[in-house]
Every structure is written in C-alpha cells, then in structure tokens.
Specification:
Length: about 160
C-alpha cells in the first residue's frame, strides 16, 4: 500500500507499467488518481483490503480497468486466504457484469492449488500466487508442476 498515490504514479508510468492500481483509502482524490494513470497511457484500477468496501467503485466505474481484491492483509507472503473474499469476489463480479464493464477482476493472497478453482468460480479472472509456487525446491520443474496443477484446476471450473 503506497501513499501518497499521485506522487508515485509518474514513476510507475516511466518505469513501463501497463496496469497501475492503488488503495482508495491511500489517496485524497480517487477519481483524480485514476485519471492521472489513464492520462499516462496505463490501465487503472483500485485495490481493496479485506475490510475495505467495494462502494468506492460505484462513482468511478467508467475509469476502472481492473479491480484487485486482497485476500490477505497486505504485508508479506505465505498468509492464509481469507474466505470472506469469495463473497466479495462474487459481489465485484456482479458489479462488473451488471454495469457491462470491460474490467478485470484480480485476487492476491493465499491462492493455492486447492483453492484456485473456487476463486475462479467466484468470478475472478486474474490470480496472484506467491508462496504456492515459490517454495522449496526452487527449481523450474517444481514451479512448473505447481503451475500445471493450478491450470488443471482451472480447466475444471464449472464442473
Ligand atoms: O503482497 C502480498 C501480500 O502482502 C501478496 O502479493 C503476497 O505476497 C502473495 O503471496 P502469497 O499469499 O501467495 O504467498
């Protein structure tokens, strides 16, 4: 979680970012921060901590290219997935679909082989997985095995 938001946006644009997201509670002017990102040619979005309401989306929906739901309290990898995030994902998916938005729905935190299918079934289309993949043994083969297992789970979505 970075604050102040607006001062950092230019740095990320200059560094070549394609998507820039920020926490709504970290800026004084959500609409202005989203506009700054879009004016810089990047896709823009909001990040929601587990206890932060999706209400912030309502008045800026035309500027949202991505909604990112934190499924842990940000800080470090290896935390357990917070199950209530699944309801929040369903709520966000409904908001995106009801408003006909061209907006990705991402989740970050505690995503593993054994919950990635449930996450996708809640309407999420981008997942961040850290410790599930980057664990011992730290080999390309081991990483691939986990990613393949995740892909196999995703192929079962809806079954
Ligand atoms: O930034 C954060 C949490 O602060 C996340 O990106 C996690 O680092 C993802 O790691 P896992 O929860 O998958 O281990």
């Amino acid at each position: 979680m970075v604050s102040p938001v607006d001062a950092a946006i230019g740095d990320f644009i200059d560094a070549g970012a394609s998507f820039i997201t920020f926490h709504p509670e970290a800026t004084n002017h959500i609409d202005r921060s989203l506009q700054l990102i879009k004016n810089g040619g990047c896709k823009a979005g909001l990040v929601f901590n587990p206890a932060t309401s999706l209400e912030y989306c309502k008045n800026v929906k035309d500027k949202l290219d991505i909604i990112l739901l934190m499924s842990v309290n940000p800080g470090f990898g290896g935390q357990a997935f917070i199950p209530a995030t699944l309801d929040k994902a369903r709520e966000a998916r409904k908001f995106i679909d009801d408003n006909g938005l061209d907006c990705r729905l991402e989740i970050d935190g505690g995503v593993k082989v054994d919950n990635i299918k449930e996450v996708a079934e809640a309407g999420v289309d981008m997942m961040v997985a850290g410790s599930a993949i980057l664990k011992e043994p730290r080999t390309i083969e081991a990483y691939k095995e986990t990613i393949d297992a995740m892909r196999a789970e995703l192929a079962q979505v809806g079954n």
